[in-house]
Amino acid sequence: TPMAAYELVSEIKKRFEVRLHLHCHATTGMAEMTLLKAIEAGVDGVDTAISSMSATYGHPATEALVATLAGTEHDTGLDILKLENIAAYFREVRKKYHAFEGQLKGYDSRILVAQVPGGMLTNL
């Protein structure tokens, strides 16, 4: 959860001199909030994906996080217009592989209750 990520990152950074990188998937709908709380707690890096290839079983959208952090102490410096050009390119690429996409559209909140292990949905 976002608050668990905040607490975990805060404690690790307080106790150890290590670099932390967070990897999470967007399946439950909490990944964006989790990344933001981890960033606020001092995480050193996070995984995202260009919007046209993000969400569902993948990572949160890069552009959303870049826009969220713009003008803050965590501003990425990435150009949102260049990111949109990249997203447009991959929207076209994704069309070619539509037949191979998973069935999930949007979020699957059942995971919040069932605690399905990572990777299980895409490996079934």
TrEMBL record:
Which ranges carry the Pyruvate carboxyltransferase domain? 1-84
Check the record and name the InterPro entries matching this protein: Aldolase_TIM, PCB-like, PYR_CT
Class of enzymatic activity (EC top level): lyase
Chain coiled-coil ranges: none
GO BP term, example: gluconeogenesis
Cellular component per GO, a single term: cytoplasm
Give the GO molecular function terms.
oxaloacetate decarboxylase activity; pyruvate carboxylase activity
Q: What is the name of the protein in this document?
A: Oxaloacetate decarboxylase
Q: To which species is this protein native?
A: Salmonella enterica I
